[in-house]
Amino acid sequence: MSMQGVLKIFMAGIAAALTAQPALAQEKLVLRAADPFPPGHYLHRHGLKPWMEAVTLATQGRVQFEHYPAEQLGKAKDLLSLAQAGVADVVLTGAAYHSEKMPLTAALETPGLFTDSCQGARTYQKLAEGVLGEKEYAVNGVRVLVPAILPTYHVVSAIRKIQSLKDVEGMKLRTLAGAQELTMRKFKAVPVRMPSSELFEAMSRGTVDGAIFSYEGVVNNKLPIKYVTSEVGFGSGAAMIFIAENRWNKLPEEVKKAMLEAGKAATQTLCSGMMREETASLEKLKQAGVTVVRWSAEDKKEMERVMAAVADEWASQMDKRGKPGSQVLKAVLEARDSR
C-alpha cells in the first residue's frame, strides 16, 4: 500500500474516533435560572427543579444550572428584560408580572376556563406553540419550554369576615392583571397589583385586606389569614419556564432536544403535583383554624353570571388596544375543547 493510502486510512481513523467521541465530552454549559418565588415553592419542586435535573441527566452532566430564586437575580417585573439581556438564561415566572409586554397570556387566567391545572397546561402548550408563541413570545424574543396553569384562585382575607359576595365589596385585594383584575372590579372589590413575595408584609400592615390566591400560595407564603372561600373560584394564574431566543439559538442541538423533552415531562409533573398540594394545603388551613367559606346558591349564580361576561369583555379591551384578544380567546377555547 502506498504512503498516500496509509495516510488516508490513518486520517479516516482519526475522524472516526473524533466522531465517536460523545458530544457531551465538550465543554460544560452552566446556565443561570432565575425566578421570583421563595425557595421550596411548588413551581420549583414540581416544575423547575425536575426540569433542570432531567436536562442535566439527559446531557450526561454537560448542562449544569445555577438557581437564583426569590428575586436574587432581579425583581419579578424585570426577569423578562434580564433574560433578553442575557443576565438570566432560563426564567421561571408568572405571566402577570409582565402584563405590559405579555398581556395576551391573561386569556388563560379567565375565570371558569379549566376544570384543573392539567387541562389548563395542555391548552397552554397548544397556545405557546401556536398563536401565543407567534403573537406574544416571539415578539418578546423568548421561547416557552414549560407552560403551567396554577390551581383555581379564591378570596383569602386577613381579618375581614366573609359570608357572602357583599362582603367582598370594597376589599383591597391583590389580584393578577388582566381578566382577574377585571373580574374583581365587577364584584366591586379594589384590585391591587403586587408580586406574591410582597403579600405577607402588605397583609400584616393592612395595605391590602387579602388576595385572590391559591391555597398553596397562602401556605407557602405563610400569609396571616382568617378566611378563605371555596368551590367556585376567580380564575387562576399562568406561569412559564422560558429561555431567550438568542440564547436558545446558541445551544447545541442535543441540548435543545434535551430541554424540549424535559419540558414535556415537567409540564405533566408540575400540573399533577400542584393539584395534589392544593388539596393538602386546604387541609392545612383548616387545621390552622382558618374559616372556609362556601358560597350560597344565590352567590354562585351571580358569580357565574358576572364571570361569563369577563372573557368577552377582556377580549374586547385587547382588541381596542390593537392586540388580537378575540383571536387568542377563540384559540384558547378551541384548544381546550379539542382532543
Describe this structure in words.
This protein has 339 residues and is an alpha/beta fold. It has two domains: 27-149 and 237-278, 3-Layer(aba) Sandwich (D-Maltodextrin-Binding Protein, domain 2), CATH 3.40.190; 154-236 and 280-332, Bacterial extracellular solute-binding protein, family 7 (D-Maltodextrin-Binding Protein, domain 2, 3-Layer(aba) Sandwich), CATH 3.40.190.170. 47% of the residues lie in helices and 15% in strands. A six-stranded mixed sheet has the order 7-6-8-5-9-11. It has a five-stranded mixed sheet with strand order 2-1-3-10-4. The longest helix is centred in the last third of the chain and has 35 residues, at 253-287.
Q: Can you give keywords for this protein?
A:
alpha/beta; five-stranded mixed sheet; six-stranded mixed sheet; 12 helices; disordered N terminus; 339 residues; D-Maltodextrin-Binding Protein, domain 2; 15% strand
- Strand content range: 15-25%
Which residues sit in consecutive blocks of at least 5 with pLDDT less than 50?
A: 1-25
The biggest beta sheet is recorded as: 6 strands, mixed
CATH topology of the largest domain: D-Maltodextrin-Binding Protein, domain 2
Overall residue-averaged pLDDT value: 92
